[in-house]
Amino acid sequence: MTNPFKKFPLVSFFILAFGITWFFHFLPMVAETNGWLVLPPGSKPWISIAFFGPAISAIVVAAGQGRASLLDLLRRMLRWRVNPLWYYVAIFGPAMIILAAVGLLVLFGGAAPGFVLFQQYWRMLPLIFLETMFVGNPLAQEIGWQGFAQPRLVKKFWHKKYSMAWVSLSLGFLASLWYAPTFILPGTDGYNLYGASMAPIFILTEMGWAFFVTWIFNHTNGSALLSGLLTQTALTLWPLVFLANSANPSEIIPISPYLTLAICLVVWLLAGSLWIGTRGELGYTHLDLESLPDE
Predict the structure, then answer these.
(1) Domains of the chain: total
(2) What is the pLDDT of residues 192-249, one digit of tens each?
(3) Which domain holds residue 145?
(4) Residue 256 covered by a domain
(5) Are 258 and 107 in contact (CB under 8 A)?
(6) What gap in Å lies between CA 6 and CA 294, rounded to an integer?
(7) Which one-letter DSSP state was computed for residue 240?
(8) Does 77 fall in a domain?
């Protein structure tokens, strides 16, 4: 009997990643929102575990491929010995980009956000960082997207004259689609902070962020840990700290659509510069892909 994990690892991964998260998280929340289902008390934290869908899928498929594939994934998850510069870039780079977008908005006559959370809780930033890192779980997501999917996309398509920029753009689009339903579900960060109408702009922005994630991934010898760190600060930590108007998720008012557009514009201006400046390779020279099985 054919092993689908060995024959179609990427297809298997994406089906599992979308299926686990959408079936066990998004569908129950949609059903509850529309009154079709009453979730028992205490069940939502367990349902939220479904956000680890990409990580679970990566581990399952890698294990199905064999020991070498699973060890490669584990090494990328734990690869922390890199140039310290990349830690600074991953943590503070997104903050500078978001603040630049705020400055652009103000320059053209828009109103700056109140930085409510930053003013009230700046002393707790390390705790907020740890909470969003491990409870908000973007790190777990990048175990799947960057730790599993990215190396295989590179191995499969890069040598066929597709640049790293196109590989990154494709993965960013798929990852943003996986996350997009949060914009239609009340109570989620995406819905509370941006509003449902901004889902297309969020998808476009995340595709731009994917260039920076791949750039760091390439410069840290394929570290899913560092790329996950940048994803966490870009999509969760700094947007909440700088842009949210309340620490209570039920009281958060969506940010100005003009600010959302400004963030998208600044991200893409820099992503485009990175694309042109690296001739589409985003710092890629070599990744250790020999341990990955051929498809």
Answers:
(1) 1
(2) 666 667 778 888 998 999 999 999 998 998 898 898 889 888 888 888 788 776 655 5
(3) 82-277
(4) yes
(5) no
(6) 9
(7) H
(8) no
